[in-house]
Amino acid sequence: MKLSRATALAAFLATAQAFTVNGPSRRTGFHLKSSTLEAPVTSTETTSPAPATRGPTRFDRLKKQYKGPRNNIVDTDLGFSYADFEEAVANTSYSFERNSIVKGVCIEYANGGCIVDIGAKASAFLPESEAALIQPLGSEIDDLVELDKEMEFQIISEEDENGQLLVSIRRIQYRSAWDSILQLQEQDAVLEAEVIGVNRGGAICLVEGLRAFLPGSHLAGQLATEDLIGQTLPLKFLEVNQENNKLVVSNRKAVVEAQMEDLSRGDLVNGIVKALKPYGAFVEVGGMSGLLHISQISYDRIDDLEKVLQPGMQVKCMIIDHDKVNGRIALSTKTLEPQPGDMLKDPGMVFDMAEETAEKYHAKMEEERKAREEAARDIVLGLGDSLDGLGGDLNGDDESSSSDPLADVSDSLDSLLS
Prior knowledge:
Strand content: 15-25%
Distance between the termini: 213 Å
Helix content: 25-40%
Shape: elongated
Radius of gyration: 55 Å
Strand order of the largest sheet: 3-2-1-4-5
Low-confidence stretches: 18-46, 399-407, 409-418
């Protein structure tokens, strides 16, 4: 028992001595190996950092992984080199400012418009509302613009964040339409235009792609109703104001001028009584307003005009005078009366016999004209005979009479002055 205790104590003391700092170590021949590399000793001189190298891009990686066919690009047979192309680009000036006119080609319909290649860094966009000045109802962008056709475009915006511009064809056509209208106005020409709408004041016509107002008072023989839409009317300009975008036209003016060229005094025309006045009736003749004066209705006196003519009544009249400049005509029915007063008794009979009576009237006027010319000739011949007799008296044998006619006057003046 005592022996075992002594052995345990000796083992304890031996272990304690092994962990003593100043004591001898039994691991003097064992060295630990560490996997951590010690930092190399650097000199006191600083070295410049190595430049950072750029890694491959996503395109480089995809290109490296591409296993498809490859096209060998050969530029030896081309008429120009890359240097020539670069020089041409440098010498080319581009003007993509707002309101500039550029040439381009529509390449694709997209997003309610059209993609246009104008040579800029990004394709331009043509909205459908700017594709044409005249856009028929129900038309689409492919009906207004043709692909792969070179046209002129006007730039109407600045570049957006993507470098894209907005362009327009309508604004170029708008200016061209005004130029044509100003030229037509200067020529005082008659033009044809289609009625596209009506309102309370008149009608709306399409003139060279622009909306023009046709007042109801300037419609020849028609009213501004829905039936007028779609009709093509001859027109002349009443007012042209490009600054205020105002265009006013007249149908009556165009009709009157056209008819005035074919009208002459003595022509027989048909008309409709439009209004009665104390001094006569206004009769519409082919879109023109003619005056049938009360003194030209009948040879007999008229006490009540309404008993002879009524508004809306169809009449036949003879033109007795006209003013082509102002589009006015003077009419007569008494020249169509077979007998004086027939217009008061039976106007229908007068109108039925109007052609026959008009021929007789013209024959009568021709006879009177010839009689006046014969009388005028007789007067001229008689005056010639009188002058011949007067000439014989002046050429008599009295030599004193053939002397200076101022001789006596001179003597009288001398006597007065003496």
